[in-house]
Amino acid sequence: MGIIVCQSCEATIEHVEDEKVTVLYSTCEHCQHEEEE
Question: Are strands 2-6 and 12-16 parallel, antiparallel or unpaired?
């Protein structure tokens, strides 16, 4: 099982099915919106 975490606010975005435990970094919709402004 893996999780996707926002690299800006550390919020858990999504859980993904994976063979091993992994943490992937992305940007959540809230932080992505702030960067565009």
Answer: antiparallel
